Amino acid sequence: MTEGIRSRPGQGPGATLARRSPCGMSPRRDSLGHDRDLKIAIFVATLAFLAVLANRVHADPLDAIVRARLAPSLPAGLEVARVYLPAGLASLDTAPEAVAIELPRELRAGRPSVKLTVRGHRSAWVPVAIAAAVDVAIAQRALAAGDVIAAGDVAIEHRAIADVAPAPAAALIGATVTTAIAAGAPIGARDVALPPPLARGTQVAIDLRRGAVHIRGTGTLELSARPGEPASARLAATKIVVHGTLVAPATLVVGDLP
Question: What contacts 76, CB < 8 A, 6 or more positions away?
Fold first, then answer.
């Protein structure tokens, strides 16, 4: 018998075998399997990247998480002024669900401690300062020693503060900075030297405000006073003495403060 294996026209007897890989799989099938493995690897890597990105998106500063957890338990009028985080946790950003806090039976003004547990870290007792919210001047830019405070350098906010006695907010315009103040920091009484008081008899602008009624005039101070303090002045036109608050540079506001 000499028939052997028949080949297609134009092909040698070994042509069919040449299209097979050594392991018996055609090159086309081998390429498809490689593409599938590559797509799976890319898909898994994408999922891992999205998981890392999601953790970053939902991570919050630990200080903010502690404040948010305490807020619903605080008595009316009190706020968290400061959270004294240990050095190892102070700069930590994490997901809120990774944080557990145990509160004391009652929160009141002062410096109680809360038990703080962050996933992956040891539990710690963390003091928190709780105080009543007050009007406080906040630096709107970094102020260096020697700077004279202008109106645009400060903003009045109603918040709780700790470890600093606030400077009289209404008296700060024209004050001289004695200790450098960071932008966003409350301005303390020890951080500034207030301007000298205006002497008795100094001419001042008088701004009378009663709701929608707004009248301007001039007068002279009855007694020396510093901006931000209560003061009295005698109107130049009627000689009537009015009482209000002296604001910088030399204006007595009678009635509603702006």
Answer: none
